[in-house]
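Contributing new records

If you add data, match the layout below exactly. Sequence lines come first and carry their own label; structure lines follow with theirs. Keep one chain per record. Anything else will be rejected by the validation script.
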Amino acid sequence: QVQLVESGGGLVQAGGSLRLSCAASGSTSVSINSMGWYRQSPGKQRELVAVRTSDGSTNYADSVKGRFTISRDNAKSTVYLEMNNLKPEDTAVYYCNYKVQITTFMTSDYWGQGTQVTVSS
């Protein structure tokens, strides 16, 4: 079992910056397929924001490319999302996700409780 706790959300003006953190605890020695950030705003489906795979490659939603950066600190078992030049449309609840490799072809998802990001215009 992996427990994920997000922090760092809040209210910021458009053009501002925030850094989200996701601290992992529990069975952190498991094989992590990927770690990422998703977001969900009212009335919309949860969408992928950024993901970092076990080989170090990263992928971003087109809407955040050039503004958001995902990184990790292995020593702290923490993944970060640096968000710059925030826009009102970035307003959402942001969720941390770990995909744990169970078998060669099967992964299991772990989610944090979410942290609210609100960007005012």
